[in-house]
Design a protein that fits this description.
alpha+beta, 3-stranded mixed β-sheet, 35% helix, binds adenosine-5'-triphosphate, binds magnesium ion
């Protein structure tokens, strides 16, 4: 099912747009959004961070599950998200595994959406380990199994490493969300589809025009919905000044 979802987006930018839309929507109202490349334990990762409202454990659970969305317009700020699928389809289009770190005023939570984990444990259904800490650092006793799953199957093998990612949100604001995606999708020639080395201040999409159209032909057609979101994100990116030099804009090189 996760593999199926990731084929909603043939164009990687529309997958990223899903994450930007979520941060912009009226339930989150992030003022800033960062897109970055980072290497963790030798693996290329994409990280996305916002200084929005963050999520309680219950909301994080809904985020990692399919088909829940209860967004409402606030004044004239109409939500882009309505289907309850964007995060799953977007993140799983970019890579095989994703971890979400989120902070509200009262709690800090971590959730894992990982195809590698599901394959490793031969899961018959989608399982999403979730951990919640109070802001004083105490984790809940019933989270022991989730903690073990996250430490075994994510890039972070100690609680200390998890806390350092939660602390990173503090640089963005008192509340917010940080998403790290790894095992990034590769092109037909085996390189990551993003080129992180070409430009110090930017992330380029590596695939050549002919390669992209070959990949497009091999995948299911993109829905109108993805294209709509994509158009919105272009606007949002220029509003947020995330273009070249602005800290992680995207440029198509072909
Ligand atoms: N960055 C974020 N900060 C806080 N909450 C978030 C964030 N991203 C997602 N969420 C929560 O997770 C839920 C699921 O997100 P998802 O993108 O999968 O669906 P949606 O935005 O509700 O609908 P759509 O499929 O149309 O995008 C959202 O409704 C929102 O409550
Ligand atoms: Mg969404």
């Amino acid at each position: 099912m996760l593999t199926l979802k990731c084929n909603y987006h043939t164009w990687p930018f529309s997958a990223i747009a899903e994450l930007i839309d979520n941060a912009y929507d009226p339930d989150v109202r992030a003022k800033q959004f960062w897109v970055d490349w980072t290497r963790i334990k030798g693996l290329d990762c994409l990280s996305f961070m916002d200084n929005g409202e963050g999520m309680t454990r219950a909301r994080l659970y809904k985020m990692l599950s399919f088909g829940y969305s209860d967004k409402k317009a606030v004044k004239d700020h109409v939500p882009v998200g309505i289907y309850g699928n964007g995060f799953k389809s977007g993140s799983m289009r970019l890579g095989k595994d994703a971890i979400v770190f989120t902070k509200t005023r009262d709690s800090m939570s971590i959730g894992l959406l990982s195809q590698s984990y599901l394959q490793a444990v031969k899961a018959q259904q989608i399982m999403v380990p979730i951990l919640t800490f109070r802001r004083d650092g105490q984790n809940l006793a019933e989270d022991a199994a989730s903690l073990e799953a996250i430490l075994t199957h994510s890039l972070f093998s100690t609680e200390k490493e998890l806390f350092s990612e939660l602390r990173a949100i503090g640089a963005a604001g008192p509340t917010g969300t940080r998403i790290i995606v790894w095992k990034l999708r590769t092109t037909l020639s085996g390189e990551t589809e993003f080129d992180f080395a070409a430009d110090k201040y930017d992330i380029h999409i590596r695939a050549s025009g002919s390669e992209r159209s070959r990949e497009r032909r091999a995948m299911s057609p993109e829905s109108d919905w993805s294209l709509r979101v994509s158009a919105h994100a272009w606007r949002c990116l220029s509003d947020c000044n995330l273009g070249p030099g602005g800290g992680g804009g995207f440029v198509c090189t072909s």
